[in-house]
Write a structure and sequence with these properties.
The complex is a heterodimer. By secondary structure, chain A is α+β, with helices and mostly antiparallel strands. Chain A folds into three domains: 159 residues, Dipeptide-binding Protein, domain 1, CATH 3.90.76.10; 155 residues, D-Maltodextrin-Binding Protein, domain 2 (3-Layer(aba) Sandwich), CATH 3.40.190.10; 228 residues, Dipeptide-binding Protein, domain 3 (Roll). Chain A has 17 helices and 23 strands. In chain A, the strands form six sheets. Chain A has a seven-stranded mixed β-sheet, with helices on both faces. Chain A has a five-stranded mixed β-sheet with strand order 18-17-19-13-20. Chain A has a four-stranded antiparallel β-sheet with strand order 4-5-7-6. The longest helix of chain A is centred in the N-terminal third of the chain and has 29 residues. Chain B has a domain of 192 residues: MetI-like (MetI-like fold, Orthogonal Bundle). Chain B is built from 13 helices and two strands; from the N terminus they run αααββαααααααααα. Chain B has a two-stranded antiparallel ribbon. In chain B, strand 1 and strand 2 form a beta hairpin. The two termini of chain B are 16 Å apart. The chains are: A alpha+beta, B mainly alpha. The interface between A and B is large, with 67 and 54 residues.
Chain lengths: 559, 322
């Protein structure tokens, strides 16, 4: 009897222990990220603009996007067609009208601005008026104006976006470009002085982190929003420390003074691997380098004497071992570009053809086109030497290195390349006026391949930095337009593939490399899977490993 | 008084000419403060034109120049497009940082250079004198950035005596009291200031040693020794006051550098002062900030050279009479 009673008590005791244990585990799980601490991010540039309609570089974007929440955020698959995969943010849900010309956004009633005021539909409507106001001069205005007619307020928590026409990416264009702004703080400021007012530096946002201090040239300090509607961030603070000198950045990273370094250079990867306390995250690349051939003779309408010939352009492409060049410049993480897009864009198809490296084939092709090697080793045709100048921005080390490699490889097939390295302020006007032979440029692309229309499709408008070589293929453009207009991804991919096959075969340029997108992170920092296009996208879920958060004095004052 | 007024007038004319030249040159340089279409293809010609109109950069250069003169007459330094706030506010942020770094660095460098030069002159020909002279020459010959890198590698990474860079400890500064904060800034200041001091001391010691060696054989020094004064007293009371003019003149000429900043030191130690701000402003065509920096620098060149003249006159009255 006693034994039975004892066993019964033991069993109960065990059950109680299990229950208590579960309670602790659940409690611990609930606070798994709540380890506090300050994350220090090394910023290579000093962002001068953080106001959502105005930021113009990556560090500014990262800070702006953790201070301000969007209506919805793109999912990890980076789909831009329809709304598949989009994560609710300020909008807890949305509905499409039957004709797809309206989208009704229902705002999360818990969402608050950092000053405590509720986020309302009027803030969404007001934001659009700010973005589209010419006096504000937002670079995002054209994307929004192309698609969107207006936003109306149905009630304080319901905003309706009205579109001019249906398009596959109409949802993406709106939620990616338009960030709701606090109307109650900004409405009274005249639009022509908004960009220069103190209010845009105060950054009262709606995101997981709020601005604490912005010391020009030194650091930008953010603190977790205490009552953030999606749950308080695990980190207490995030500081973007501006360190412009790369060697100092690396020393601070290796010495444990920095936790994250974005845009980590490929040339430093081998050194980083020696530090066990650091890890390297390879995010998707949305940046490719290219050489654009000017298909016309300078700014004129006459075909260029060299690049006007498709065969010559193909031969020049064939003469370059782009894989080896990419590895030479970027080391183990170097990848040659597959075409005028990156492998991270959903329009990429692994079965895309390419012009293969074949030096002997290139030489034969040039011979067959009448370019014969002259006494000085340079090919000539009708008295014209196969020699040209490549404009390279002096600020781009990878492209300067690539230019040297191209010079060497083309020399081996009888092509003389003169590299002209210029400051972007001098080079820019030459390129937009098409006063060049060849230009080594780069494009930062979005997850959507629809940008192909502007980058290589339509003939450039005056002053545009797009399509500098003036490639204009109706077949390419038609396929791109069909891709943009398709509402199903498989159909869109089919059209984009056909377009890419056309442009790759025409070789209006040489797509040199995909710039590696590397982020160095201290091993003690725990992160959810990083979104390929934005390492900061889930910063509120980052934390330090238990016991690894750098200590903060107990007298810490909440700023 | 008349002399001082004449000097002030001369300085004002020089500053006006230099500022006008800076205004014209920076406006005629290619580019403008807005990114080119190549950097950001969203920034179309139309948008750039709108921005240029907003900031008045579309007006003829003469109109812009007159506007610039009028704003300076009102005591306004204009708007920094790059920083998105008034130029005066930008200068108020970066100037104190640079003054702190440069004043400590140059002060220590001057004192250290004079002490080293004096010591070298007193121990001329000794092995240590030759060694320190060689070391000073090495410091002078090596580019600034290498000295900065070496300092970081040795004292911050290796010995971990000092933080590597920045003005404050990013993690802890917010939780410190006023004294701790001052100590934190001092700790961060130490390495860049000492690096700067080493560079200044190396230069000053070479000049000062030569000046000391020129004074040591003078008759009055021999007389002082013959009077039975100790060698220490001879050096401090008789040789040093006659030799230090060179070092002080160098200090006077270095005063403008205090306000111009040391770009390399600031860059490597992430010390965001005038040097970096001016460099960024010139590259980014931040017109009004560049011109304000030039004016400020001109003012301090005038003050520095006047200071050097006064010191030289005090030490050698014959110069005042010339």
């Amino acid at each position: 009897m006693l034994a039975v009673l004892h066993r019964s008590l033991m069993a109960r005791s065990l059950a109680v222990r299990i229950v208590i244990g579960c309670v602790f585990i659940v409690a611990a799980c609930g606070r798994s990220g709540a380890t506090g601490g300050t994350l220090i991010v090394g910023a290579p540039t000093d962002p001068k603009k953080l106001f959502p309609p105005l930021y113009d570089e990556a560090t500014g974007q990262a800070i702006s996007e953790v201070v301000y929440d969007k209506l919805a955020d793109i999912g990890p698959a980076l789909n831009t067609v329809g709304d598949a995969g989009y994560q609710p943010r300020l909008a807890e849900r949305w509905e499409w009208s039957r004709d797809s010309l309206q989208i009704t956004f229902h705002l999360d009633p818990r969402a608050r601005w950092h000053d405590g005021a509720p986020v309302t539909a009027e803030d969404v409507r007001f934001a659009l008026s700010v973005y589209l106001d010419p006096a504000v001069a937002s670079p995002k205005a054209s994307e929004l104006a192309d698609e969107l007619d207006s936003i109306t307020v149905r009630d304080s928590l319901t905003a309706v976006a009205w579109y001019k026409r249906r398009s596959a990416e109409q949802f993406h264009e709106l939620v990616n470009n338009l960030v709701p702004l606090p109307a109650h703080l900004l409405r009274a400021i005249p639009r022509d002085s908004l960009a220069t007012s103190g209010a845009v530096r105060a950054l009262v946002g709606s995101g997981p982190f709020r601005l604490v201090r912005w010391e020009d040239g030194q650091f930008i300090e953010l603190a977790a929003t205490p009552d953030f509607y999606r749950g308080r961030a695990a980190l207490d603070r995030v500081v973007f420390e501006i360190v412009k000198e790369p060697t100092t950045t690396f020393a601070k990273l290796y010495g444990g003074e920095l936790d994250v370094v974005d845009q980590f250079p490929a040339s430093e990867v081998a050194e980083l691997r020696k530090h066990a306390a650091l890890r390297l995250e390879r995010a998707a690349s949305f940046f490719y380098g290219y050489v654009a051939f000017n298909l016309y003779d300078g700014a004129s309408g006459r075909p260029h004497p060299v690049f006007g010939d498709r065969g010559v352009r193909r031969a020049l492409t064939m003469a370059l071992d782009r894989d080896a060049m990419a590895r030479s410049v970027f080391g183990e993480v170097g990848v040659a570009a597959a075409g005028p897009l990156t492998r991270s864009q959903w329009g990429y198809d692994p079965s895309l053809p390419s012009i293969p490296f074949d030096r002997a084939g290139a030489a034969r092709a040039l011979d067959s086109l009448g370019w014969h090697v002259g006494p000085d080793g340079v090919r000539t045709k009708g008295g014209r030497r196969l020699a040209f100048t490549l404009l390279v921005p002096a600020t781009s080390k990878p492209r300067l290195q690539m230019a040297t490699l191209m010079q060497d490889q083309w020399k081996q097939v009888g092509v003389a390349l003169d590299v002209s390295s210029l400051d972007p302020s001098a080079l820019g006007p030459m390129v937009v006026k098409h006063e060049f032979d060849a230009f080594a440029g780069s494009f930062h692309v979005s997850p959507s391949p629809s940008g192909l229309r502007k980058t290589w499709g339509e003939l450039p408008e005056a002053g545009s930095g797009y399509n500098p070589g003036r490639y204009g293929s109706p077949a390419f453009l038609a396929q791109v337009d069909s891709g943009i207009g398709a509402f199903q991804i498989p159909e869109a991919k089919r059209h984009f593939k056909a377009a890419l096959e056309t442009v790759i075969a025409d070789a209006p340029g040489i797509w040199l490399y995909e710039a590696p997108n590397l982020v160095a992170i201290a091993g003690r920092v725990r992160t959810p899977p990083l979104r390929p296009d934005a390492w900061w996208s889930n910063l509120e879920r980052w934390s330090f490993a238990p016991g690894a958060a750098p200590a903060r004095a107990p007298s810490a004052k909440t700023p | 008084m008349r002399f001082a007024l004449r000097r002030a007038l001369q300085a004002a004319i020089v500053i006006a000419v230099v500022a006008s030249l800076a205004f014209v040159l920076i406006h005629f340089a290619p580019g403008d403060p807005f990114p080119s279409a190549l950097d950001d293809p969203h920034l179309t010609d139309a948008l750039r034109a709108r921005l240029r109109t907003q900031y008045g950069f579309d007006e003829p250069i003469v109109v812009q120049y007159l506007r610039f003169l009028a704003s300076y007459a009102r005591g306004e330094l204009g708007w920094s497009v790059g920083h998105g706030r008034p130029v005066a506010s930008v200068l108020a942020t970066v100037l104190p940082r640079t003054v702190l770094l440069m004043a400590v660095g140059l002060g220590l460098g001057l004192v250290g250079g004079v002490a080293l030069g004096t010591w070298q002159a007193m121990h001329r020909g000794s092995r240590v004198e030759r060694l320190t002279g060689f070391a000073a020459l090495v410091v002078l010959s090596v580019p600034e950035f290498l000295v900065a890198l070496l300092a970081i590698r040795l004292f911050a990474q290796g010995l971990q005596w000092f933080p590597m860079s920045g003005l404050v400890d990013m993690r802890m500064h917010g939780s410190m009291d006023a004294w701790e904060r001052a100590g934190d800034v001092a700790r961060h200041l130490a390495l860049p200031a000492l690096t700067l001091a080493a560079l200044v001391a190396a230069a000053v010691s070479r000049y000062h040693r030569a000046a000391m060696l020129a004074v040591l054989p003078e008759d009055f020094v021999r007389t002082a020794r013959a009077k039975g004064l100790t060698e220490r007293r001879v050096i401090l009371r008789h040789v040093l006051p006659n030799a230090i003019g060179t070092a002080l003149s160098i200090a006077g000429l270095l005063i403008p550098a205090v306000f111009g900043g040391a770009t390399i030191i600031e860059k490597f130690f992430a010390w965001p002062g005038m040097g970096l701000a001016m460099f960024d402003a010139a590259v980014g065509r931040d017109y009004q900030l560049v011109v304000a920096g030039v004016v400020l620098s001109g003012v301090f060149v005038a003050i520095g050279s006047a200071f050097a003249d006064v010191i030289a006159a005090r030490l050698d009255p014959r110069q005042a009479r010339r």
